[in-house]
Amino acid sequence: MGLRTNLDRLRAVEIASIQRDSKITYTITFRDEACSKAEPGQFVMLWVPSENECPMSLSEISQYVSVTVRPVGRGTMKICGKREGEKLWVRGPYGRGFTILGYSNLLVGGGTGIAPLIPLAEKSAKSGRDVTLLLAGQSADSIPLLSRAKGLRKLGVRLVYATEDGTLGFKGVATELLKKLLRKHKFDQIYTCGPELMIKRVYQLASANNIPVQASLERYMRCGINLCGSCAIGRYLVCRDGPVFDSSILKNVEGELGRFRRTPRSF
Ligand SMILES: Cc1cc2nc3c(=O)[nH]c(=O)nc-3n(C[C@H](O)[C@H](O)[C@H](O)COP(=O)(O)OP(=O)(O)OC[C@H]3O[C@@H](n4cnc5c(N)ncnc54)[C@H](O)[C@@H]3O)c2cc1C
């Protein structure tokens, strides 16, 4: 099968900056015209020679774009070992991003799942929405993009934190804090990204409160363009039908969330 569009062609981009933005992540910034027109929640396929491509959410979308990468395996370690001025290869952006609906919106991000919520919070606040951003991690220094998030306060974004060791904000996991917030506030829409078990619980709590959810899912993904089927969840493909899924689809895959996933060893 040939290339479908120009977006499927790998483009070399020069790294404008690479910064360690938390104990667990590096944020890499570059210029790319196609990515600068992406929607929050869309992802790119990143490649460095000799490694598999890695799907990555865009964590900044403007004239410059960024990805925020946690080094977990060969591809991501090589990407995070790059320096300013060196090259990366990128294709996309791909997938369905978040749709901004409702007025009073809560964004719940855990770990690297915070990445796509930062441009979403920015765009939502700029369009006049009331935005609360819940950032969760094991400790204060392991919350990705904390200083970028703090910068969103000037747009009126409210920040709340949950850390497992209690070094910032609520001591506990994201969903315990979410339960407390839901008792006090009425939200029109909840957006979430992070570990699947967290997403599952966010979906269950939101549904019990009749609040629609949009969740960005991460599954092991190889092609990103609906060719290989490796990112299947239920009868959906994360690359084609997601990565952002709303409550109407989450209810069909709820049983699979956090239970079963393919890994590179599944092939
Ligand atoms: C739509 C989407 C958006 C993503 N956004 C981000 C992001 O913003 N920041 C970030 O750090 N990571 C993100 N990921 C996860 C990232 O793509 C993987 O961590 C990366 O591809 C691992 O590649 P590797 O070669 O380093 O590791 P490998 O050697 O391939 O694998 C190392 C470990 O990571 C797991 N893994 C591999 N691929 C994935 C995957 N796609 N999702 C979850 N676990 C995986 C493997 O099962 C294995 O345990 C995203 C994934 C998807 C599908």
Overall pLDDT score = 94
Give the overall silhouette.
Answer: globular
Instruction: Supply the helix-strand structural class.
Output: alpha/beta
Distance between the termini: 21 Å
Strand order of the largest sheet: 10-9-8-7-11-12-15
The arrangement of helices and strands along the chain is EEEEEHEEHEHEEHEHEEEHEH
Major β-sheet, in short?
7 strands, mixed
Number of helices, counting only DSSP H or I runs of 4 residues or more: 7
List keywords for this structure.
binds flavin-adenine dinucleotide, Elongation Factor Tu (Ef-tu), domain 3, 2 domains, Rossmann fold, globular, 15 strands, seven-stranded mixed beta sheet, 22% helix, alpha/beta, single chain, 267 residues
Tell me what you see in this structure:
- By secondary structure, the chain is α/β, with parallel strands linked by helices.
- The chain has two domains: 6-94, Elongation Factor Tu (Ef-tu), domain 3; 104-266, 3-Layer(aba) Sandwich (Rossmann fold), CATH 3.40.50.
- It is built from seven helices and 15 strands.
- It has helices at residues 74-80, 117-126, 146-151, 174-184, 196-208, 238-241, 247-253, and strands at residues 11-20, 26-30, 43-47, 54-61, 65-69, 87-94, 104-110, 130-137, 158-163, 170-171, 189-193, 213-216, 232-233, 236-237, 244-246.
- It has a seven-stranded mixed β-sheet, with helices on both faces.
- Bound molecules: flavin-adenine dinucleotide (FAD).
